[in-house]
Design goal:
The structure is a single chain. This protein is an all-beta fold. The chain has one domain: Jelly Rolls. Helices cover about 0% and strands about 45% of the residues. The strands form two sheets. A four-stranded antiparallel β-sheet has the order 1-8-3-6, with no helix packed on it. It is globular.
Protein backbone atom coordinates (compact mmCIF):
# COMPACT_ATOMS: atom_id res chain seq x y z
CA UNK A 1 0.00 0.00 0.00
CA UNK A 2 1.31 3.46 -0.86
CA UNK A 3 1.81 6.09 1.79
CA UNK A 4 -0.43 9.10 1.02
CA UNK A 5 1.41 11.37 3.44
CA UNK A 6 3.59 13.93 1.71
CA UNK A 7 6.85 15.45 2.85
CA UNK A 8 8.25 18.81 1.76
CA UNK A 9 11.53 19.34 3.58
CA UNK A 10 15.07 20.67 3.53
CA UNK A 11 17.99 18.37 4.41
CA UNK A 12 21.49 19.49 5.38
CA UNK A 13 24.19 17.44 3.64
CA UNK A 14 27.86 17.37 4.55
CA UNK A 15 30.90 15.31 3.62
CA UNK A 16 29.63 12.16 5.36
CA UNK A 17 26.75 10.10 3.97
CA UNK A 18 23.40 11.02 5.57
CA UNK A 19 19.98 9.40 5.32
CA UNK A 20 17.68 11.61 3.23
CA UNK A 21 14.65 9.31 3.16
CA UNK A 22 13.95 5.94 4.81
CA UNK A 23 12.74 2.85 3.00
CA UNK A 24 9.08 3.29 2.03
CA UNK A 25 6.58 3.20 -0.80
CA UNK A 26 6.46 6.39 -2.87
CA UNK A 27 4.22 7.77 -5.58
CA UNK A 28 6.52 10.69 -6.39
CA UNK A 29 10.00 11.81 -5.38
CA UNK A 30 11.68 15.12 -6.20
CA UNK A 31 15.13 15.95 -4.82
CA UNK A 32 16.77 19.27 -5.71
CA UNK A 33 20.30 20.39 -4.87
CA UNK A 34 19.63 23.84 -3.37
CA UNK A 35 23.22 24.39 -2.22
CA UNK A 36 24.40 27.97 -2.63
CA UNK A 37 28.12 27.27 -2.18
CA UNK A 38 28.62 25.20 -5.32
CA UNK A 39 28.46 21.82 -3.56
CA UNK A 40 27.91 18.80 -5.76
CA UNK A 41 25.66 16.26 -4.06
CA UNK A 42 25.61 12.57 -4.84
CA UNK A 43 22.64 10.35 -3.99
CA UNK A 44 23.00 6.70 -3.03
CA UNK A 45 19.94 4.48 -3.44
CA UNK A 46 19.78 1.50 -1.10
CA UNK A 47 23.31 2.14 0.14
CA UNK A 48 25.48 4.84 1.67
CA UNK A 49 26.27 7.66 -0.75
CA UNK A 50 29.79 7.92 -2.15
CA UNK A 51 31.04 11.06 -3.88
CA UNK A 52 30.41 11.00 -7.64
CA UNK A 53 29.16 7.37 -7.55
CA UNK A 54 25.43 7.28 -8.08
CA UNK A 55 23.01 10.05 -8.94
CA UNK A 56 25.08 13.25 -9.15
CA UNK A 57 23.34 16.61 -8.68
CA UNK A 58 25.17 19.81 -9.50
CA UNK A 59 23.81 22.99 -7.87
CA UNK A 60 20.09 23.28 -8.69
CA UNK A 61 20.15 19.86 -10.33
CA UNK A 62 16.98 17.79 -9.86
CA UNK A 63 16.25 14.09 -9.47
CA UNK A 64 12.61 13.28 -10.29
CA UNK A 65 10.76 9.97 -10.14
CA UNK A 66 7.00 9.54 -10.45
CA UNK A 67 4.46 6.77 -10.97
CA UNK A 68 3.44 8.40 -14.25
CA UNK A 69 4.13 6.43 -17.41
CA UNK A 70 4.15 3.10 -15.54
CA UNK A 71 7.34 3.91 -13.60
CA UNK A 72 7.63 3.11 -9.90
CA UNK A 73 9.96 5.26 -7.76
CA UNK A 74 12.38 3.31 -5.59
CA UNK A 75 11.19 2.02 -2.24
CA UNK A 76 14.78 1.83 -0.94
CA UNK A 77 16.52 4.19 1.47
CA UNK A 78 18.09 7.27 -0.09
CA UNK A 79 21.36 8.70 1.18
CA UNK A 80 23.34 11.81 0.17
CA UNK A 81 26.86 13.17 0.45
CA UNK A 82 28.21 16.60 -0.57
CA UNK A 83 31.52 17.61 -2.11
CA UNK A 84 31.98 20.17 0.70
CA UNK A 85 30.29 21.09 3.97
CA UNK A 86 27.12 23.16 3.85
CA UNK A 87 25.20 21.35 1.13
CA UNK A 88 21.39 21.36 1.14
CA UNK A 89 18.68 19.37 -0.57
CA UNK A 90 15.00 20.18 -1.01
CA UNK A 91 13.01 16.94 -0.76
CA UNK A 92 9.42 16.38 -1.80
CA UNK A 93 7.91 12.94 -1.62
CA UNK A 94 4.50 11.38 -1.35
Amino acid sequence: MLNDESRNDSVAVGTASVLVSPEKARKELIITNTSTGGQIITLGVGQAAAALRGIVLTPYGVYYASMTNNFNPTTQQIFAIASAAGGTLAVFER
